[in-house]
Amino acid sequence: MNIATEPGQHRLFLALLPDASTRRALLRLRSRAITFGVSEDLQGTGWIAPENWHITLAFLGACSVEERQTLSELGPGLFEDFQGVRLTTQAMQGFPEAKQPERIWAVTFAPLAGEDTEHGASPGSWREHLLSFSDIAELVQDRHEFSPHITMARSRQPMSWPQRNFAIQCHFDRIALLESINDRREGRIYQSLSVAGASL
User: What torsion do the CA atoms of 141, 147, 150, 152 make, to the nearest 10 degrees?
Assistant: First the structure.
C-alpha cells in the first residue's frame, strides 16, 4: 500500500519478522527463481532487501506524532505473549494488489490446517489480537481479506512474474511496530519503534 504522508505524519505498520535462517533460505530460492525467468536488472523492478522482509499484520497509514507516541508506548503490552510463528511456504508468485495488479512478486504461505485460535499460533490470529486494541483498530487502513505474504520485488508496471511452488518451514521470531521512511539515498527503510521476540 502506498500512501503519501504530510509533514508531521508517520507511516506505521505492524509486522512479523523472519529469523536469519529463514531469510537465508528465501534468498537462495529467490535467486533460483530469478534464474528461471526474472532478470535482476529488469528495468523498473525494485528488489526488497532481505533485512526488510516481513509479513504485514496491519497497515496503520499516516499517523500523527501523538498517535506514533501512543502506539510506541503500547508496544510492550501488545506483544507480551509472542512466542514466534512458524509457517510453510506455498509459492513465489505474482501477488495482486487491489489497485496495482501483478506489480508485486511475493512469497505466499500454505493455509494452516486446523488453525489454532490462540493469538500466538498464526499471523491471522495475531492480527485479530492486535485489532482488539481500539488505538490500533481506529487506524487500520487494510480491511481487505488478510493474505500473509513477504514481498520480494515491486514493479512500476504489471508483470508476468514466474511462479515457483516450494515448501519450506519459516520461523518468524519477532513481532514489531515499524515506521516506513523514504530516504533519498537508501530508498524505503523501516525503523523499529517497538519489537518483541524470542531472539532478543
Answer: -90
Distances (CA, A) of 22 to 6, 113, 185: 35, 21, 28
Q: How far apart are CA 191 and CA 132, in angstroms?
A: 24
pTM: 0.85
Q: What cell numbers appear for 6 in the block?
A: 504530510
Question: How many helices (H) and strands (E) in the chain?
Answer: 4, 9
Grid cell in block for residue 36: 528461471
- 135 Cβ contact list (under 8 Å, min separation 6): 67, 70, 71, 74
Q: Does residue 193 sit within a domain?
A: yes
Please give the DSSP secondary-structure letter assigned to residue 156: S
Catalytic residues: 54, 149
Residue 1 located in a structural domain: no
What's the pLDDT tens digit per position in 78-106?
A: 888 888 899 999 988 887 655 555 578 88
